[in-house]
Description:
Shape: globular
Structural class: alpha/beta
Helix content: 40-55%
Order of helices and strands: EHEHEEHHHHEHEHEHEEH
Amino acid sequence: MRYVDLHIHTTCSDGTKTPAEVVAIAAEQKLSAIAVTDHDTVAGVRAAQAAGAAAGIKVLSGIEISTEYQHREVHLLGYFVNPASESLRPVLDWTVQDRDARNERIVALLQRDGYQISMEQLRAEHPNTVIGRPHMAEALYQAGQVSSIQDAFDRLLAEGKPYYLPRTYMPFAQAAKVIQAAEGVPVLAHPLQYDYSAEELERLVKTAADCGAVGLEVYYSGYDEAQRNCLKALGDRYGLIYTGGSDYHGTRKPHIQLGTGMGRLRVPETAVEQLEQAWKRVHP
C-alpha cells in the first residue's frame, strides 16, 4: 500500500519549506499524493501542483480556514478548492485585514517595551507569506531577544501572555459555505485538538456534518489507535469519511515529519479516493 499526507503547510503560511520543497520531501517518502493546506491562503497550490506533475505526485488543492465555533477556534480543511475562485475572496480578505491589523498591534506593543522588531523587517524577510506569531517568534530569536522560538511563545506570544491578541475568525458555517462555493469539500481538522468532552466533540462533529463537511481528520500526528477508532465511530455515525495528514510545518514543528507525523502516522491512499468520491457527490 502507498500512503499520502493531506495536511501540509508551506512558506505561503507558517511553514518553512516552499511548495516545491514539500513535494520533493514527499517524493523522498514515496508518497502517492499530498495536499497543500496553508492557513487561510491558496497561494502555494499552483506551484506545488506544478512540482507534483514533474515528480509524479498528485497534489490536491487545499486550504485550512481558522473559524469560530461557539466562541472557540476550530479549523476547517477545504479540499479541491479552485484557487482562482472568487468565492474564496471572503476568506482571503478577512484573513489579510484581520491579521494585518493584529500583527501591527502586537509589534507595536513589543516595540513599546523595547523589543527590536518591525513589520517592515518581517515583510522583507517573509515576502508573499501570511505573517503571524511564528514569524515574530523567529525574528525575536534571531535577534537574540529570546532563548528559543518556543521561549518567545511561552513568555510573550502564546494565549494569556503579555503580547497575545485574539483574532477575529470567520463563523464555522460560513467557512463551510465558502469552501463549497469555491468548488471544494470541507473536512473537520484534527478534531481532538480542541479539548472537548465526548459530548462536546460529538456536537462539533454533528455540526460539521450539518454544515456540509464530508469527512474527519482521523489520521493525525500523535493520535493513537484508540483515538482513531473513536473518530472513525463518530464518522460512521454521521456519514463522514476518514482523511488525515501530518500537519507538517517544517522546522517550526521539528517533531512532525512530512508523511510520518511523529513517526507512527500512515494515511492510506484510499483517503484520496474517498475524498474524490465525496467531491463528485457534492459537485456532480
